[in-house]
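[audit] Reproducing an earlier prediction to check determinism. Same input, same settings, fresh worker. If the tokens differ from the archived copy the diff job will pick it up downstream; this log only records the rerun itself.
[audit] input (120 residues):
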Amino acid sequence: MNQTLYSPGLHKLVTLQVNDVDKLCNSNDFIIFSEDLLLKYNLEKVGIIVHNFENNSFTIAICLKESHICIHTWPEFKQLTLDVYLCNYLQDNSSKVKELVHEYVSFFNAVVIKDFEINR
């Protein structure tokens, strides 16, 4: 029996140091930037959930047809965590995941503190 090993996609989890605290408090700018990335990388949004906290930090989950992008910000620590996972049974989206994370690092002008990759 000949079995082909199936790998649904790459899942990146990063923690970023961000000196511009305003970017960690502005969920609208993050959403606008993310919507532009979805168009650029031809990703289909299924839904989005946004929660703004009392200290102006935010949590956002963007549900995609291909999986998800999630962010949690901590302005009091000048940090955020970002979770990007794209799966697709027709093509390997690993390069898109890496490019998306790079785009977010640039958007926040951030330093990567932790960087994990999981091949699902």
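[audit] rerun output stored. Observation attached for the diff report: The longest strand covers residues 9-17.
[audit] end
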